[in-house]
UniProtKB/TrEMBL annotation:
Protein localization: Membrane
EC number: 7.6.2.1
Protein name, per record: Phospholipid-transporting ATPase
Biased composition (Basic residues): 1171-1180
Any single GO CC term annotated in Swiss-Prot or TrEMBL for this entry: trans-Golgi network
GO biological process: Golgi organization; phospholipid translocation
Gene3D superfamilies the record matches: Calcium-transporting ATPase, cytoplasmic domain N (3.40.1110.10), Calcium-transporting ATPase, cytoplasmic transduction domain A (2.70.150.10), HAD superfamily/HAD-like (3.40.50.1000)
Keyword Nucleotide-binding part of the UniProt annotation: yes
Origin species: Drosophila madeirensis
The UniProt record lists the keyword ATP-binding: yes
Molecular function via GO: ATP binding; ATP hydrolysis activity; ATPase-coupled intramembrane lipid transporter activity; magnesium ion binding
Amino acid sequence: MGTKTQPQQAKENERRIRANDKEFNLQYKYHNNYIKTSKYSVFTFLPFNLLEQFQRLANFYFLCLLVLQLIPAISSLTPVTTAIPLIGVLTLTAVKDAYDDIQRHLSDSQVNNRKSKTLRNGKLVDAKWSEVQVGDVIRLDNNQFVAADILLLTTSEPNGLCFIETAELDGETNLKAKQCLTETIELGDHHDALWNFNGEILCERPNNLLNKFDGTLIWRNQRFALDNEKILLRGCVLRNTQWCYGVVVFAGVDTKLMQNSGKTQFKSTGVDRLLNFIIIGIVLFLVSICALFAVGCAIWEGFIGQHFQVYLPWEHIIPKDYIPTGATVIGLLVFFSYAIVLNTVVPISLYVSVEVIRFIQSFLINWDEEMYYARTNTYAKARTTTLNEELGQIQYIFSDKTGTLTQNIMTFNKCSINGRTYGDVIDLRTGEPIEVTEALQCVDFSANPHHESDFRWYDRTLLDAVRSDEEHSHVFFRLLALCHTVMAETVEGKLEYQAQSPDEAALVAAARNFGFVFRSRTPNSITIEVMGRLEEYELLNILDFNNVRKRMSVILRRGDSVVLYCKGADNVIYDRLHSGQEDLKARTQDHLNKFAGEGLRTLVLAERRLTEQYYKDWRTRQQEAALAMDSREEKLNEIYEEIESDMQLVGVTAIEDKLQDGVPKAIANLQSAGIKIWVLTGDKQETAINIGYSCQLLTDELADVFIVDGNSVEEVEKQLRQFKESIKIYNRFRPGGTEALYNSDSNMDPLSVTMTQTSVFMHESSAPPTPPPPPAISVVTFSAECNDLFGDEKRSLDGGAASIVIDETTGFALVVNGHSLVHCLSPELEIKFLDIASQCKAVICCRVTPLQKALVVELIKRAKNAVTLAIGDGANDVSMIKAAHIGVGISGQEGLQAVLSSDYAIAQFRYLERLLLVHGRWSYYRMCKFLRYFFYKNFAFTLCHCWYSLFCGFSAQTVFDPMFISVYNLFYTSLPVLSLGIFEQDVSDKNSLEYPRLYTPGLKSELFNIREFIYSVLHGAFTSLVLFLIPYGVYKDGVSQHGYILSDHMTLGAVVATILIVDNTAQISLYTSYWTVVNHITIWGSLVWYFVLDYFYNYVIGGPYVGSLTQAIKDLTFWMTMLITVMVLVAPVLAYKYYLLDVHPSLSDKIRQKSLKKFHSRASSDVRRTPSSRRGRRSVRSGYAFAHQEGFGRLITSGKIMHKKPQDFAFPLGLGTKKTQALHNNLASADQTKTNSSGNHMGNNNNTNQRHNQNQNHSSMADISVEGRVHEADAGGSGGTEDMSPRAPCQDLDTINL
C-alpha cells in the first residue's frame, strides 16, 4: 500500500519533457521563462520596506522610543526629538532601496522583453523571453543571448558544432565548443521537420552545477545519451555560428544561471560586531540608570514630593489615596521617561554616519590613481561599502598563485623529448647555459608561413631535429598539435586559436611555430599541417581534462592505426606508463625536477598504440557506461582508466608563467606588517616552492622549510610531530632564547657575556651538567631523539624555570601537498596542523582543489578567530573568496568570475599592498577615531541629564531645550565628526608604505576596543560632570551686573548647551591630525551654525527658550564661565596627549616628528624594514633541491661524514656570529688539529662575509646582550643579521641531526 509506483518515482527523480507538445508539458507545471529579481512593487514597497527596516534592532529600538514619547504621562520630550531623525533615516534608506529595486525592475524588464524566435505551428514567430515555455523549439542567431537552457538540435555548421561565450555565466571569455547529436543534425533549418520533432527528454532535476548534465533523448524508438556538451545555458552568447536550434529544457528560475544566483553570504566587520556588543551593553547600562532613577524618584515622591502637590500636582492617573502606591507608580512612569531622555546615548545618527563614512571611503579607493593599471585601463573597485575598515585588520592572506602572483601569460620555454632536454642555450666554451636576455638572438621561424612573430625560442637544436625528420621530435609535436580542445578560425586571412586555457594555447602555438600547424577540426576529425603536408585524423574520442583526472586524452585513427595521445600531470601520467622505461623515466624525471626548480609549469606527454579489435571492445563498454542513468561519472572514469594505461613516455613540456610586477616587494612589506601569507595553488610542489622563493614568500634566511607529504594519517601525524619538536628546539636554542643563562645587565662586559654563554656549551669540569648538543632541523632527515633529549621543554639549561615564548614570526615555512592536506584538515589532526602553521612565516599548499581552499580559510577563521583575506583571479578561487572575511578579485586572464564574487577588485597583486597598508589602515584608523569621539560627545551630552536629576527630584526634567536635543547630533556635531572619519590620517600614504609596521595596531584591534570605549565613556562622563557643575555653581543664586536673576532653568540650559558645543569644537580640533579645507569649514562652521540656528528657532519660529542665550552672552559671567569650563576640560586632554608624545610615542608619532624636522635619511631598523642584502639572487633552495633523490644529506646531518664528533662542535646551534665562534675556539681547550680545522673553516666563511662585517666594531656578543636583543626583537630589522654568516644563526641548525 505504501510503496510508490514506478512512474511516481520517475516523476520525483527526473524531469520529462516532450518537444513541441504544450499539453504534455503543462501537466508537470514547469516554470515559465519569466524572471523576477526585484523585491517590491508599487503597492508593496512601503509596507514591505518598512517591515524590512524595522527588523534592524536599532530602528525598532527607536520606534519603541517614539511610541513611548507619544504618551504624555511619561514623556518629558516632544516626539519630534525622535521622529525627525528616525523618519530621516527611514526615508534615506527607503530611497536607496527604491533606487536599487528600480534598477532591478529595469533589468528584469529588459531581459524579459528580449525577443526570441520561437517555433509555433510550424512557423517562426518573435516571442518575448518571458513567453518561452519548456518544450518550445527556439532559434538563435549569431551574437544572440541564449534565452533558456536548451538542448542543441542542429546548427549552421556542417558537423553540428557551435561556439559560445560564457562570460556572463562564469566570467570566462574563451570560446567553448558545443556539439549536437549527429542524429538530429539532419533536421537542419527546415521548420516542418523541426515542428514535427517529438523527441522525449528524460533528464536531471534543476540544479546549480554548471558543468554537469545527465539526460537521455528518446526519439524514433532509440535512446541517445545527453551530456553537458549538448546543452546551451541561459546567459551564454552564440559566437562564430550563423544560427542554431534547440529545445527548451529548463526555463526561468529553473535555469542554471538563476539556480546559481543565490544570495551572497552576508559579511560584517569586526568593528561592526564589537559595536553591536557595545550597543547591547549601553542599552543595559541605560536600563540600569533608568531603574536607579525610578527608585530615586519613588523615594523622593514618597518622602518629599507628596508635600508639594499644590505646586507639582500628580497626574490624574496616579492614585493619591495611598502615598507609597502613588510614589511607586510615578517611579514606574519615570523609568520610561528617563529611557526617552537618555536615548541619545545611542543615537540613530551613529548608524547613518558610519554608512556615510564607509560609502565615501569606497569612492576614495575607486579614485586612487596609484592603483590604476594603464595596460588594461582598470581602476581599483570597491564592490561593497561595508568592509573598508576590515582591510586594516587583516591577519591572514590566502592567495592563489597562477594569475594572482604570476601573469598567467604562458610561453613555451623548454621541453624534454626522449630523455633529451631542449631550451637552454649552451656556451660552447664553458659548457654552461647562457642566461636568456632580450639581447640574445632568437631562432628564426620565418620559413614557416604560419609562424607567429611574437614567438621566442633560443635553442636552435630543436628546430634542427624537427627539420631533419627526427622521429621522437615529430611524435612530440604531433601530439601537441592533436591532443587538445582548441578551436581554429581564420580571421582576415590569419589563422587564430580559441583555447579554454592559456596553457593549452601556448602548447598548440608552439607546435604551430615548429611546423605542426593545427588547421581545423570537426566533430569527427582533426586536420593538421606537418611541414607543409596536410594530415587528417579521424577523431574517435576525447577523454577530457578535469580536476580529478588531471589529464586529457584523444583517440585518433589514421589509416589502419589507432593511437591514444595523452598529456597531464607528471604523477598521474607516470603511474600509467608501461614498464620497461626506467632509464627514460629517470632522465625525464631529472628534467621535470629541473624545470620545476626554475618555476616552470610542466606537463608529461605519452602515447599508446591500440589494436582495432581492442578499441571496438572498449568503445562498446564506453557507450554502455555513457548511457547509464546511475553512477555515470564513476563508470566512465573506470573505462577511461582502463585505456589510459601501459602508455609510452614521449616527453615533457615546460611553460613559463612569469611573476607579476612588484609581487616580491608587496609580499615583503605585507609580511613586515605582521600579516601571514598562505599560497593555495593547484600546481605541483616544486613549482610552488620555487615561485615562493621568486616572490620572496620563502627566503634563504628561513631556518627551515617543512614539507608535509605523507599519504596516510599516521605519516602526516608523524611529520607534524617532528616539525613541532623542531620548532621547540629552535625557539629554545636560538639567539636570545637562552637569556636566563647570563646576566642581562647592559653594563656587563662583552667578554664576560661571551664566556658565560660559551661555558654553557663547552664540556668543562667547572660547568654544571648540561644536556647533550641539541638536535638540528633538517629537511632531509628526522629521528625520534627529540623526545629523549628534551622531554621537558619548560626546563631551562641551568635548571631554572624558563617559559618559552614562541615568536609568531619564527623562521619557518610550511609546504603541504593536497593529499596530505586532506588529513591535516581532519578533526584529529587539524589542531596539530594549525599549531605548526601558525608558527610559520609562510605556508604553501600545493595540489589543492577549490573546495580545499575554502576549507583552509574556514579553519583559520574558526580556530584562530583571525581576520582573513582571500585573493584570486579565476573561477576556482570563488569558493575561497566567498569564505574569507574579505574577498579580492584580480581582473586577470582567467575571466571575471573572481571579480564578480569579490568585495574588492584590483588589476594587479601589487596593489593589494596599497589597498591594505594605505586605504585599509586609514579606514580602520578613521573609523576608530570617529567612534571614540562619537561616544565621547554623546555621553558628554546625555549624562548632563543624570547630574541634573540629582537637583530636580529625579523627575526626568531635561537640562536642554527639546529642539536642541533633537538636532544636536543632526546639525551641530555631525559634519565635524564625519570629516574626521573621512579625511583624517596620521601619516601620509608614502610613509604608510615605507613603514609597514604602522599596520600592526589594526592586527591587535588597539585603536578601538572595550578599553578604548570605556575610556571614551569615562572622558564623556567627566566632561558632562564639569559641564553641568561649573555653570550650575555659577548660576545658582546668581545675579547679573544689571540686577537680573540668572538662576532660571532656561538660562542654565542655554549656557550648558553653548559650552557643550564650544567644548566639542575644541575637543575635535585636538583630535584632528590632518587638517583640510573641509575640516576647517565643518568644525568652525558648526560652531557658527549653532548660534545661527538657535537665533532662527527662538526668534523666527518662536521657541520656548527665546532670549535665554541672548541675555546670557551679554553678561561677563557667561564668558568667564565658558572659558574656565573649557580650560578645565581641555587641559587634561592636552597634558595626556603631550605626555604620550614625549614619554610613550607611537611609531606614527615618531614618523610625524621626523617629517616635521624634514629628516629624509633612511630610518633605523627599529621602525623600518630593511630588505635582505641577499634577496637579489636566486635562492639555492629551489624546488629542484626538494625534488632530488636523497644524497649526502643524512651523512652530513648525522655528523658521520665529518672529522669531529657532534658534541665537539664549537658552535652546535649557531648562537652568534663568526666572531663569536672564533672567540669560542680561542677559549676552548681542544687539540691543535681541531683548532686548525675549525680555524680554516672560519676563515673561509669570514672572507665571504667581510662586506657584511666591515662596519661592525663592537663585540659580536652585543647581539646577545640587552642592546642586541632590541635589534633582534624587531621584525624585519637588519641590525641583528648583517653581522651573521649566511648560515648563522638559523641555517646552522641544518648541521645537526634530530
